[in-house]
Specification:
The complex is a heterodimer. By secondary structure, chain A is of the alpha/beta class. Chain A has one domain: Amidase signature (AS) enzymes, CATH 3.90.1300.10. Chain A has an 11-stranded mixed beta sheet, sandwiched between helices. In chain A, α7 runs antiparallel to α8, α8 packs parallel to α16 and α10 packs across α13. Chain B is an alpha+beta fold. Chain B has 3 domains: about 220 residues, no CATH class; about 100 residues, no CATH class; about 55 residues, Arc Repressor Mutant, subunit A (Orthogonal Bundle). In chain B, the strands form 3 sheets. In chain B, strands 2-5-6-9-1-10-11-12-13 form a 9-stranded mixed beta sheet. In chain B, strands 4-3-14 form a 3-stranded antiparallel beta sheet, with no helix packed on it. In chain B, a hairpin with a 4-residue loop joins β12 and β13. The longest helix of chain B is centred in the middle third of the chain and has 20 residues. The radius of gyration of chain B is 28 Å and the shape is elongated. Classes of the chains: A alpha/beta, B alpha+beta. The interface between A and B is large, with 44 and 29 residues. The site of zinc ion has 8 residues of chain B, from loops.
């Protein structure tokens, strides 16, 4: 097995044992990126690769390791970062033309924490523009391809991070999850993705899509790797007043405990509302098998009803655009980013430049949501739309509270379908939005969730994800049950799901 | 674009036909060390765009954090205005595009202000020359809320305004500085005294802010900004008329003048069958008129919604009570106390208050000057200069400590009142402390007998007839000789010593 195929936990052991250096690991991943990411049929997980910076950080890591002063267990393990997180000296475009060429003068708190823990940053990963989408097709820089089938979407908005990890371009990646942007790409690429409790990880430096829903989280190939990364990035940040000022639960211990595969005494609930019409048969089949495997491992299962979840999608598509429309107002060509002068206008006014820039710089999906959000907040409509949506949000939180009185965790498939074809739903926003049906409620209520690979759908041979949700602040429970499910499912599958992915042919130069 | 005056109705006629309703929105820039939502310093006068960070520049990804001192100041202002303090309130985004607003929304408060439902008893001085009592007028406070300031645009071009500018520069040092906006309920029933009520309210509010120590509260520097809303209703009608909001009112005097002007303008429009346009108007200090700004209406939609990046502010009742205990003395009680302590007559006190000089006189007395001398300098010499330059007394640029310093020099005999005026010239010209100015300008009174004696001899020689009169017992005639000596010494002679010398040299012949 080559270095790039090893998971991060194995790499930390190898680094500690002196079997490999961080420079070698980093170079191996850079070579992999160069081999499979670029070209017409490349994965295109990266928008920007920082080979020089990553190798410099790797050399520093090796020096620390030699001096016996590593910064953390993950010191020297390279990572990819979603392009929505501010990185000093590295472009941060959010997948948008309007931020082309912008280089932040500061690091997002999570990025600063990666650096403080010694993880070399390989580059910035592709995403739907401003994280608006479920397929990464809304990136202004072209879509990312799913390594399982290059004609299919890798999920979104964090398709880049998931595809990078699935195609062995990076052992670890950071994603952000507003309505499923970590978990749904995880499901359709056969990787692990975690959305922590809202406030568990700082949002400072995360270019906000919807501030009250966004959360940064790990994208990895194993549950333990996610826990190791979670430990690095989580914890209170005085720069983010919505971040939780409490000790981080011991997620690594929880993941190690869960890996034994014993679920004795654990009560799991299957969400009744997340099934039925529109749910792919192969997805439901793998999901039911997963539940059966958990029961066989000692879990007690009940069906739980969360009646308000049927309104989650509607509420989400009012709250998100409302917040986004205001967040995106700052892109006005005055201080940074793209500036477009209107054609045929002599000495245009600031307002004319703003209009021309926003017209040229934002893609259709972004414009669609700005219009939607502006409308939802307008006087006379606010109560009927934004106000009602907030009430639905409260009801969804109550559904979760009631459910977690009965069970320890809730289960559902992560996404209703497997990866669809590139272009298939691009002109049908509503069909696209339905991908997030199962993931949105967790964002509306702020609870943590994980997606774990649970097999391939019969009809198309593509990965299916199992979603596990826990109460707010119980992130450790997500890892414990997630790791148990991973152990059980890996055993049932006879090995990691990703081992079944087709081998990528080399396509030439990377991003 | 030159501003032209509108048709006006005579003030008395306007008041005979209409009842004015006032509304005042005052923005107070707090003197916190750091900005409302980031750690940037707030000092005035720094190089443009040097007191900025990702948060106050609105860079993608940056987040706000509430300044606790800002909240504390807001609560203290609210308490001093007899407001209720919210147990729980949120910030809200006020969305609109403008280049000097980094995020294109202002973080403010909307339907959940930190302080609400208060009042202030405003003492409106009786008209000059009348022997009526001062009138106490209760102004109801609707709310006081927290928000952030915007950046500052400078339009470069012939007009200095955005229209016709060649280009504009924006300084974001001011962006994010904490503001408290204090909004009155409609003030009705002031009648013809509406302009004075408006002025007295702003003036008294400023005194209160200064006493709280939460702001420099200088109108000329924009620490305190008043927007004046005015509408007229036909006399006796309960319905409020359409209002205008006048901005750029930068002194107490302008508050009064702007209200008066708008009363007359509204009356002229309404009486000729016209309708008042709901709009923002700009006050022009130089010409004393208002001109139309951008059209504004309640239809302008700021799409307020709760700021999702900030957690609610929930001041504990214990904290609120702690802050209540730090409030300064009630202004009305304080005025009575000071009048008694200073031994001022009612008229003297009224003049001091009317001139907005109460805190100035108080500080001057605290700095060591006698109450009468403090009043004298502020209300005569300095008030005249403020009036000449069209600024409020507080904004003149002379501090109470300096006035006390000048008076100390007078008391010590170093200078006399006449020379003191030249010291004030020096202070306004920024020439240093009173002592330094006396030194540099060579203003000290001469009491040296040698120099004075020579000047006295010269005066006697030049005025033999006057000398004769004095010798003959008409001591009062000495005044003419003193005048001559003073002229010779360019005012710098110690008049008392000169008199003594004259009488010594010209003993009365029995
Ligand atoms: Zn700042």
């Amino acid at each position: 097995m080559s270095w790039i195929e090893k998971d991060a936990a194995a790499l930390t052991d190898a680094l500690a044992a002196g079997e490999v250096t961080s420079v070698e690991l980093t170079q191996a991943h850079l070579d992999r990126i160069a081999a499979v990411d670029g070209g017409e049929r490349g994965v295109h997980a990266f928008l920007h690769v920082d080979a020089e910076g990553a190798l410099t950080q790797a050399a520093e890591s090796d020096a620390r390791r030699a001096a016996g002063t590593p910064l953390s267990a993950l010191d020297g393990v390279p990572i990819a970062v979603k392009d929505v997180l501010a990185t000093t000296g590295l472009p941060t475009t959010c997948g948008s033309k309007i931020l082309e060429g912008w280089v932040p003068p500061y690091d997002a708190t999570v990025v600063a924490r990666l650096k403080a823990a010694g993880l070399p940053i390989l580059g910035k990963t592709n995403m739907d523009e401003f994280a608006m989408g479920s397929s990464t097709e809304h990136s202004a820089y072209g879509p990312t391809r799913n390594p399982w089938d290059l004609d299919r979407i890798p999920g979104g908005s964090g398709g880049g991070s998931a595809a990078a990890v699935a195609s062995y371009e990076a052992p670890l990646a950071l994603g952000t999850d507003t309505g499923g942007s970590i978990r749904q790409p995880g499901a359709v690429t056969g990787t692990v993705g975690v959305k922590p409790t809202y406030g568990a990880v700082s949002r400072y430096g995360l270019v906000a899509l919807a501030n009250s829903l966004d959360q940064v989280g790990p994208v990895t190939r194993t549950v333990l790797d996610s826990a190791l990364l979670h430990e690095v990035i989580a914890g209170h940040d005085p720069r983010d007043s919505t971040s939780i000022d409490q000790p981080v639960p011991d997620v690594v211990a929880a993941a190690r405990q869960g890996a034994a595969g014993d679920l004795t005494g654990v009560k799991v609930g299957v969400i009744a509302e997340l099934a039925g019409e529109g749910w792919q048969d192969g997805v439901m089949a793998r999901f039911r098998e997963s539940v059966d495997a958990m029961v066989a491992a000692g879990a007690e299962v009940v069906e739980v009803s969360c009646p308000s979840f049927v309104h989650a999608m509607a509420a989400y598509y009012l709250i998100l655009p409302a917040e986004a429309s205001s967040n995106l107002a700052k892109f006005d060509a005055m201080r940074y980013g793209l500036r477009v002068l209107p054609e045929g206008v002599d000495s245009p006014s600031a307002e004319e430049v703003m209009r021309a820039t926003r017209d040229a710089g934002f893609g259709d999906e972004v414009k669609r949501r700005i219009i939607l959000g502006t409308y939802a907040l307008s006087s006379g409509y606010y109560d009927a739309y934004y106000g009602q949506a907030q009430k639905v949000r409260t009801l969804i939180s109550r559904d979760f509270e009631a459910a977690f009185e009965q069970v320890d965790v809730l289960l559902s498939p992560t996404a209703p379908t497997t990866a669809f074809k590139l272009g298939e739903k691009l002109d049908d926003p509503l069909a696209m939005y339905l991908n997030d049906l199962a993931t949105i409620p967790a964002n509306l209520a702020g609870v943590p969730g994980i997606s774990v690979p649970c097999g391939l759908a019969e009809e198309d041979g593509l990965p299916v994800g199992l979603q596990i949700l826990a109460p707010a602040l119980a992130d450790d429970r997500v890892y414990r049950v997630g790791a148990a499910a991973e152990t059980l499912l890996t055993k049932a599958l006879g090995g990691p799901l990703l081992d079944r992915a087709p081998t990528l042919t080399e396509t030439g130069a990377g991003a | 674009m030159s501003a032209t005056a509108a048709d006006l109705m005579a003030y008395d006629a306007a008041l005979a036909a209409y009842d004015p309703a006032l509304g005042l929105e005052v923005h107070v820039e707090l003197n916190t060390a750091t900005k409302m939502f980031c750690g940037c310093p707030t000092g005035f006068g720094a190089e443009p765009n040097t007191q900025v960070c990702p948060t106050c520049l609105g860079l993608p990804g940056a987040m706000p954090v509430v300044n606790r001192v800002g909240v504390e100041s807001a609560i203290r202002i609210g308490l001093a205005l007899n407001c209720s303090i919210a147990e729980w309130c949120r910030f809200a985004r006020k969305n609109y595009f403008y280049p000097d607003m980094p995020k294109n929304f202002q973080t403010s408060q909307y339907d959940e202000p930190i302080a609400f439902d208060g009042w202030m008893d405003v003492v409106v001085p009786a008209p000059e020359g009348s022997d009526a009592e001062d009138e106490v007028f209760r102004v109801e406070i609707e709310r006081a809320h927290m928000e952030e300031d915007t950046g500052k645009s400078t339009h470069i071009g012939e007009t200095g305004r955005i229209h016709g500018a060649d280009y504009s520069l924006v300084d974001y040092n001011r962006a994010g500085i904490p503001l408290i906006e204090i909004v009155t309920k409609p003030i009705r029933g002031a009648g013809e005294r509406a302009p004075e009520v408006a002025r007295a309210y702003v003036q008294q509010l400023r005194d209160l802010i200064v006493a709280l120590g939460v702001s420099e509260a200088r109108m000329d520097q924009g620490n305190l900004r008043a927007d004046v809303n005015l509408s007229l209703a036909p006399s006796g009608s309960d319905v409020l008329g359409t209002r205008t909001e006048t901005k750029n009112v930068n002194s107490f005097r302008s508050v009064e003048r702007a209200v008066r002007y708008e009363v007359q303008r509204h009356a002229a429009v309404l009486s000729s069958g016209g309708a008042i346009l709901q709009e923002t108007r700009h006050w022009h200090e130089d010409t004393g008129i208002t001109t139309s700004g951008r059209e504004k209406s309640d239809a302008e939609d700021y799409r307020y919604f709760p700021e999702p990046d900030l957690v609610p502010v929930a001041p504990s009742r214990e904290w609120v009570e702690e802050l209540r205990a730090t409030l300064p003395e009630n202004p009305t009680a304080k005025r009575a106390r000071l009048q008694a302590a200073w031994g001022y007559s009612d008229l003297e006190m009224r003049d001091v208050v009317g001139a907005g000089a109460l805190p100035l006189v108080e500080e001057t007395v605290e700095a060591g000057a006698s109450p009468q001398s403090a009043r004298k300098w502020w209300l005569s010499e300095l008030a005249r200069r403020a009036n000449d330059t069209g600024v409020d007394l507080v904004d003149l640029g002379v501090t109470p400590a300096q006035v006390a310093g000048v008076q100390a020099l007078v008391d010590a005999g170093t200078i006399n009142d006449k020379l003191a005026r030249q010291v004030f010239d020096g202070l306004l010209a920024g020439e240093g402390s009173p002592e330094e100015i006396v030194e540099k300008r060579g203003l000290a009174v001469v009491s040296d007998d040698g120099a004075l004696g020579a000047a006295v001899d010269k005066a006697i020689e030049a005025n033999p007839d006057v000398a004769e009169k004095i010798r003959g017992g008409k001591v009062a005639a000495a005044g003419a000789l003193i005048g001559a000596v003073m002229k010779e010494m360019r005012g710098q002679a110690d008049a008392g010593r000169v008199r003594e010398l004259i009488l010594e040299k010209l003993p009365v012949v029995e």
